[in-house]
Write a structure and sequence with these properties.
globular, 132 residues, alpha+beta, single chain, 4-stranded antiparallel beta sheet
């Protein structure tokens, strides 16, 4: 399992939120709730499985907060490195409309497809009723 963003960023955000609220003397609203969604894509050597932390409730308000690569079969030095680099780019751009990494095209496509799969799940209604 590979974490794209480390604990340091989370601690910094938490500290900033807490200190900002305490030092300014103003009441701040609670941070927006986030959820985790798993997505799958097909890499060069097999499936790619990711977990994506997402905040927001609509297509225009979704924010990608974190990406964890849960499993992949691709070469760690090529496909794994490409996924790490793309993960940072996805977080920076808040989207998957990116070019793949040269030399790891299929790994790149599979990784971005896995993130897209998670994003699509975030947009589905929470409850789907089935009528017999």
């Amino acid at each position: 399992m590979y974490r794209i963003r480390g604990m340091a960023v989370s601690c910094w955000v938490l500290f900033t939120f807490m200190a900002g609220g305490c030092l300014s003397g103003t009441v701040r609203s609670a941070p927006e709730a986030s959820r985790f969604y798993e997505g799958r894509g097909e890499g060069y050597e097999g499936p790619i499985h990711v977990s994506v932390q997402i905040a927001g409730t609509s297509k225009t308000s979704l924010r990608i907060l974190d990406i964890v690569i849960l499993d992949h079969q691709d070469d760690p030095a090529v496909g794994g490195a490409a996924m790490e680099a793309l993960g940072e780019a996805v977080l920076a751009s808040n989207g998957t409309d990116l070019d793949g990494v040269s030399g790891a095209t299929e790994s790149s496509r599979g990784f971005l497809a896995a993130i897209d799969d998670a994003l699509q799940q975030a947009l589905l209604p929470e409850t789907l009723e089935t009528f017999d």
